[in-house]
Amino acid sequence: MKHRLPQLPYEMDALAPHISEETLRYHHGKHHAGYVNKLNALIKDTEYEEMSLEQIIHQSDGAIFNNAAQTFNHNFYWKCLGPKKTDPSEPLLKALKETFGSMEAFKEAFSQKAIGHFGSGWIWLVIDEHEKLQIQATSNAHTPIEHHLTPLFVCDVWEHAYYIDYRNERAAYIETFWMLVNWEYVSQIFEGKEHLRLSTTLPLCNNPDDPMCEYLDDLSHQDMTSS
To answer: What CATH code would you report for 19-227?
Structure first.
């Protein structure tokens, strides 16, 4: 099984001026593609060659883990962004308010976690097996699915995500990030319940109406070459 670099769900210039076409060409076409290609090279003729990304993440370490997890994280990151303004669904908005007090308080807590994160990594909104929302930071390639948490959306705080547009001003990047969150996608994942039954060895989901299930199951059955 060869893993593939997915096409962006929008045009290269669609997120401008907040994230430029130049950034997307480097971030998606160089960094993300590099993780996919390196993963395929590392797993060739190994026990990991026929595994899904999730299985590799749970069963590997070192370079194989790093490239598998970074491939997963980037695949998810692009789907969390979009060029048009969207809003959380009523159920998601209610949950955010119940957990954090208000939408503004949630954004502030998430932004502070992102700005204050030391070094490279990711800031996530996740839902646990008890359907509780959490903000989590992971360093380097680490990802919530290692701990059977379901990601709802993520902000990439590796410098390559923002350096072309914002140089070292991570806070400016985080501020504009909120204008790009694809809340429709996030809300669909939140409102699906099959994602709470994540498994590392069996098909992850079987609900065609849950976008996270569709996404994870698609990864489990990849057979296309990376582009």
So the answer is: 3.55.40.20
